[in-house]
Amino acid sequence: AKQEGRNRFSFFSHDLESSIRERHQLETCLRNAIIHDELFVHYQPKINLATNEIVGAEALVRLTDSEGLFISPNEFIPLAEETGLIIKLGKQVLYKACQEAKSWLNMGLNIPISVNVAVAQFADPHFANIIEKALHDYQLPAELLELEITETALMIDAADMQTKLYQLKSLGIKISIDDFGTGYSSLAYLKKFNVDVMKIDMSFVKDMLNNKHDYEIVKTIISLGQSMGLALIAEGVETNEQRQALLELDCLMGQGYLFSRPLSASDFNAFILQHKG
Ligand code: C2E
Ligand code: CA
Ligand code: CA
């Protein structure tokens, strides 16, 4: 009977089995990378759209599989969040990023580093201490560290979040709202939380020149940010036409393939040296 059952459901169970196996493999791979400190961090420059100067860098985690191929963060970050591995992953990325920013400082370059922070990291009661320790261990000035959080993170337990953000901001670090426009933003929260930077989500930038609707969204986000006194940065800038249009709308910073893909630490250093501001 068991055999029969197997045959009858073989199509489904096969699929399910393989997806469970894949998930398990990915989790093992991620867990090992964390234990053996084998996560990489790549850095993507943030550019002043008017002067072409490098005004910052975003740290983006990288994981390779057993064959050395990159696995997309869109695959393993959600898994890291579900399994709680995100806490350790986040800490490792933060440390590497602070170390790198300090090395730029030692080269005489003031390049602020942005680190992505997952909701669970914020919820961790030790989070502010982890940040403080990273700044202290690498002797990195707090104003050179920026945390990127999503709008959705702001909505979770608002009272608690306000205390945490206040704690973090009093260290002197900056806070930016990632993927702006895609989550459940509450304008009242935005004002209350006193964030520094708004990142316009790349989904709006992508079609801003061939979709009137997207253009209006980008325009509206920019004037909203300006009226709140926030710095604005557009994600996913891929063409010079987009750069020009963003500048005309008064968005002064951008990040995207037009300038550079995320680079390994050594490639980023080479980029800095040959880049003309
Ligand atoms: P994100 O924070 O919105 O990061 C921007 C993503 O857009 C990066 O993908 C980057 O490589 C990509 N990108 C940059 N410029 C362009 C462009 O011009 N065109 C296009 N099509 N894409 C561009 P990546 O590195 O694959 O990361 C995906 C997401 O994974 C990130 O989105 C972020 O949500 C998450 N992530 C990455 N690293 C970390 C991390 O260390 N911690 C946490 N919690 N999440 C991370
Ligand atoms: Ca980000
Ligand atoms: Ca984004």
From TrEMBL:
Molecular function GO terms recorded: catalytic activity
Domain EAL: 23-276
Key word Phosphoprotein present: yes
Domain of life: Bacteria
GO BP field: phosphorelay signal transduction system; regulation of DNA-templated transcription
Keywords, in A-Z order: Phosphoprotein
Protein name per its UniProtKB record: EAL domain-containing protein
Organism: Shewanella algicola
Complete-protein stretch covered: 543 to 819 of 819
